[in-house]
Structure formats: C-alpha cells, structure tokens
Amino acid sequence: MDSSAPEQVADKSLSESAAVSEVRDSAEKETNKPAQIASSKIGIDAERIRSSISRLTSNSTDELEKLVAKLQELQEFLKSETSRVQDEIGSVLDGVGIIIEAIAPWKTDAGANARTNGRDKLKRWP
What we know:
By secondary structure, the chain is mostly helical. It has one helix at residues 4-124.
C-alpha cells in the first residue's frame, strides 16, 4: 500500500496542475472573448458598410450610364438639327441671291431713269 500512496499523490498533483492549467486556459479564453466579439462585430459592420456602398455606387453608376446614353442621344439629335438648319439657311440664302439677281436690273434701270429725270428737272429750272 505504501507504493500506491505516492502514485495517488503524484496523480493528484498532476490532476491539480492539469486543473490549474485548464482554469488558466479558460480564463484566457474568456478575457479574449470580448476582443474576439468586438473584432467580429467590427468585421460584420465593415462588411455591411461595404455592401451598402457597393449597392449605392452600383445604383449611381447605373443612373450615370443611363444619363450618358440620353446625353449622347441628345447630342446626335442636336447635330442632325444643326445640319438641317444649316441646309435650310443655305437654301434661303440661295433664294435671296436669286431674288437679288432678278431685282438688280430693275434697280439699275430705275436708278438711271431717276438720275436722268432729276438732272433734266434741274436743267429746266431757270
């Protein structure tokens, strides 16, 4: 029996040291838990923020792409309208040129007659 007593004492001291070690490990885990919880909460918050930013920028990007498309359509419309108006102005100027050419002989004939008549009147005065 004497030989079993030292074994029991050794087993008790091993089990006590194992228990102390276990308690120390669980205490460290408990003290690290708030940090882990805070870390995971920050990670979750960061992921939520990233998700929100991604969703908002996606919506904004889509809206900007639609706006760009509409502005390009408007630009094409304005180019075609500018070309059309320039063509119409050219046609009007051609028409005015034709009218001026048609009236020019009348104007020079009327001007010559007016000058002659005016001189004649001046010569008839005493």
